[in-house]
Amino acid sequence: MTVCIIAAVLLGILCGRFIISPALLPFIQGSAEWFLAIMLFVVGLDLGRTGNLVRQIKALPKAVLSIPFLIAVGSIGGALLINVLLGLHPLEAAAVASGFGWYSLSGVLIAETYDVSLGALAFLANVFREIIAIVLIPIVAARLGHLPAVAPGGATTMDVTLPIISKHTSAQVTLIAFYSGVTLTLLVPVILPLILRWAALV
């Protein structure tokens, strides 16, 4: 599946560069949303077919509620470590990371309220996070376990990367991933403006 996904992305890049007319882009983007909705519907069907789903949800330890917050801390902490090589202001590095994979919001928000070049960096960093997550999730699930496979996707585990997590983990972990993605998505418009406001004062 990972090979197919990577091949599809590369094929899309080539088609977008050499074949597809710009006039077709609005139609293609609209179709992409429908295909994503269909994929999520299939994930829902798969979860619904799990006869003991309610029992599995009740069996989840309360500690799983902390997972998205730990992912948020790890994402920002990792960015601060990498920033030693980049040389950005620590708060700017934290702002880029606090998109948690939601590139469309984080890039625009940073560009409009703080700095255009940092917004572009945030957009690219979060796009690449999503692409890397698509590649890493099956590997992490196979080698480190199902629960760690939730972390790479960040906010995208509520939509784009959820079908991949569903395929390579269990129904329980799929539910945790969806909860984590929703929570991280809600955290972005709270944490990011706070960091940007703090960065503007420094």
Kindly describe this structure.
The protein has helices at residues 2-18, 25-48, 53-59, 67-86, 90-97, 103-113, 116-143, 162-168, 171-201. It is an all-alpha fold and 202 residues long. It has a domain at 100-202. Helix 8 (162-168) runs antiparallel to helix 9.
Concise overview:
By secondary structure, the protein is mostly helical. Helices cover 76% and strands 0% of the residues.
Supply database-style keywords.
202 residues; mainly alpha; 9 helices; globular
Helix-strand pattern = HHHHHHHHH
| Number of H- or I-type helical stretches | 9
Number of strands: 0
Q: Could you give a short account of the major beta sheet?
A: none
Mean pLDDT: 85
The proportion of residues forming helix, as a percent range, comes to: over 70%
Runs with pLDDT <50, length 5+? none
N/C terminus separation: 46 Å
Shape: globular
Q: Please state the structural category.
A: mainly alpha
* Strand residues, percent: under 5%
Specify Rg, calculated over alpha carbons: 18 Å
